[in-house]
Write a structure and sequence with these properties.
Blueprint (H helix, E strand, L loop, with lengths): L1 H18 L6 E2 L12 H4 L20 E7 L4 E7 L11
Parallel strand pairs: 1-2
Antiparallel strand pairs: 2-3
């Protein structure tokens, strides 16, 4: 029984690793300005990640893009998210 459990766990681990995705964060010589608007020349070096899901809900995820870059001083993230239900404080 113990061997069967070990084989089953190994099989599941292999399936999980086979579906894992790698995201590479590229180096930039020029730091992006943190102004809220993205410089296309700088961010074009970054890989775009778009395949987001809600693991708890089968409905489609709003359009979302993630990018990341690094330089000698920092790690930079950029998100573009479409949200049709933005609420700022208070009650909806």
């Amino acid at each position: 029984m113990k061997r069967l459990l070990i084989c089953f766990t190994t099989l599941l681990l292999g399936i999980t690793v086979a579906h894992a995705q790698q995201y590479n964060i590229h180096h930039t010589d020029k730091a992006p300005l943190l102004t809220g608007s993205a410089d296309p020349a700088i961010w074009s070096k970054a890989e775009v990640l778009t395949d987001f899901v809600f693991p708890w809900n089968p409905e489609a995820v709003p359009a979302t893009e993630f990018r990341a870059l690094w330089d000698k001083d920092a790690l930079y993230f950029r998100f573009n998210v479409k949200d049709d239900d933005i609420q700022l404080g208070g009650r909806p």
